[in-house]
């Protein structure tokens, strides 16, 4: 293949070695609290993340999402940047406290923002993909008990319906929850995410009510004619330290239950696995949260399974080891560092684990279209002295490696239909604050200037080419 430069020379374009299907969805993702800022605008209420981030000692540097990337006011500029990259889809999340500041009723001004955002996306040829819950529970609902309380599931379905009633004529793809494992177990067991509770038994109840909320919301969305409804999980790509050791295999199986099968099995109609219910009991909670009919509600057919992948986990059997805070019931399991380079999150870069995870999903669960709804890496990005460029070769390597891993899974027969980079913009990285930068686009938080990193240009070329060249 060849093309002409403006000067008229003919240059050889690299052969596309890893070509993706023609209708493959290329995009990027963000989440409301991480980018919007404007936390008091147009009647927005408080969420558990407002409370948590304003609690001293909870977030690095005392950072909060108060201003974030000011996307609430700068969304037009941000959508124009998406269009320059050639993104086909943009996954954003709706801030529940903008829509229901009190956890009930409706705030039309909050819905107006997403109305404008969706229109702007469509006007630029970018498909809107709406996530309904990316961790910002209205504080009034937490005050009534939060996700460990069953009623929260019904409140979520009510909110989902409200959002669909406003946006459903233009938004076709809906993701109910983002990473329910993090919301339940980082938020209610480890306490390192909002609402910061350390109540292992409550975390299992929270996890179940998130899934129940997903099922109820799915029914509400479908009743309103939603085209594509799915959920996004962050399965652990967990493996035993010694693949031949029975204790190590058992340890990996335990973590697989607590982060993967706890969601996948009920979602695909298999109900909760016995080992997960046993772990809930060991953590001090009879699974009294499980009522007749819940598993049917949760098993509503999925049009889409979103997978967020960043890094593998390696475990070994270690008798006497207390359960890790985020994995109640995981006594006797020790996490060990995987070998290899790490990102600034200290997460090991291992693309092969993504292929393995996707192949496992393809082999063990009923067929469903899969999108990688998040994949990306944080590095120590700094603008060049001219302030116009940010060189981020490590991110390009990371994304390139993981896209090849996705391509391999597709070649092996897994139905992966989309890939969304985390993230479009640098943003508020939860308990890590602003010191971890995941964006394709650098954000100067003092001036709110946006600078496209080299990886943004690289991704634009991948999209335009529909794939990757031979590895260099
Ligand atoms: O920033 C988060 C995102 O909100 C959820 N998935 C993981 C990302 C990186 O930690």
Automatic annotation (TrEMBL):
Pfam families linked: Glyco_hydro_1
Reaction it catalyzes: Hydrolysis of terminal, non-reducing beta-D-glucosyl residues with release of beta-D-glucose
Binding site for substrate: 34, 134, 178, 310, 422, 429-430
GO biological process: cellulose catabolic process
Keyword terms: Carbohydrate metabolism, Cellulose degradation, Glycosidase, Hydrolase, Polysaccharide degradation
Residue positions of the active site: 179, 374
Molecular function in Gene Ontology: beta-glucosidase activity
EC number in record: 3.2.1.21
Family membership noted in the UniProt record: Belongs to the glycosyl hydrolase 1 family.
Protein name: Beta-glucosidase
Organism: Natronosporangium hydrolyticum
């Amino acid at each position: 293949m060849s093309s002409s430069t403006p000067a008229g020379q003919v240059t050889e374009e690299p052969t596309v070695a890893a070509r993706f299907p023609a209708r493959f969805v290329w995009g990027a993702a963000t989440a409301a609290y991480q980018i919007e800022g404007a936390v008091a605008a147009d009647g927005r209420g408080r969420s558990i993340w407002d409370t948590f981030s304003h609690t001293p000692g909870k977030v690095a540097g005392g950072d909060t999402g108060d201003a974030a990337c000011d996307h609430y006011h700068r969304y037009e500029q941000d959508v124009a940047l998406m269009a320059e990259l050639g993104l086909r889809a943009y996954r954003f999340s709706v801030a529940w406290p903008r829509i229901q500041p009190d956890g009930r009723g409706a705030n039309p001004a909050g819905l107006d923002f997403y109305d404008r955002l969706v229109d702007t996306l469509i006007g630029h040829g970018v498909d809107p993909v709406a996530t309904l819950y990316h961790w910002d529970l209205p504080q009034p609902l937490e005050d009534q008990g939060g996700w460990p309380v069953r009623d929260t599931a019904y409140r979520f379905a009510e909110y989902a319906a409200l959002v669909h009633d406003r946006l459903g004529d233009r938004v076709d793809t809906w993701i109910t929850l983002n990473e329910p494992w993090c919301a339940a177990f980082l938020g209610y067991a480890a306490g390192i995410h909002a609402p910061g509770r350390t109540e292992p038994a409550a975390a299992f109840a929270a996890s179940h009510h998130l899934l129940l909320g997903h099922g109820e919301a799915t029914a509400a969305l479908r009743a309103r004619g939603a085209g594509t409804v799915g959920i996004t999980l962050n399965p652990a790509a967990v493996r035993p330290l010694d693949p031949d050791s029975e204790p190590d295999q058992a340890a990996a199986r335990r973590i697989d239950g607590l982060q993967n099968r706890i969601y996948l099995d009920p979602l695909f109609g298999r109900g909760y696995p016995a080992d997960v219910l046993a772990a809930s009991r060991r953590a001090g909670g009879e699974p009294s949260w499980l009522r007749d009919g819940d598993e049917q509600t949760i098993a509503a057919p999925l049009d889409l399974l979103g997978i967020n992948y960043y890094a593998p986990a390696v475990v070994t059997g270690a008798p006497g080891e207390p359960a890790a805070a985020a994995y109640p019931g995981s006594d006797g399991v020790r996490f060990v560092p995987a070998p290899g380079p790490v990102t600034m999150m200290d997460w090991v870069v291992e693309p092969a684990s993504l292929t393995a995870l996707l192949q496992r999903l393809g082999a063990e669960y009923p067929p469903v279209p899969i999108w990688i709804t998040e994949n990306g890496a944080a590095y120590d990005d700094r603008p060049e002295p001219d302030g116009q460029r940010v060189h981020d070769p490590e991110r390009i390597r990371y994304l390139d490696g993981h896209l090849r891993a996705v391509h391999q899974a597709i070649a092996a027969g897994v139905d992966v239909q989309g890939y969304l980079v985390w993230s479009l913009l640098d943003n508020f990285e939860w308990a890590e604050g602003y010191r971890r930068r995941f964006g394709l686009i650098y954000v100067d938080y003092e001036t709110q200037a946006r600078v496209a990193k080299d990886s943004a240009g690289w991704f634009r070329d991948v999209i335009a080419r529909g794939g990757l060249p031979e590895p260099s």
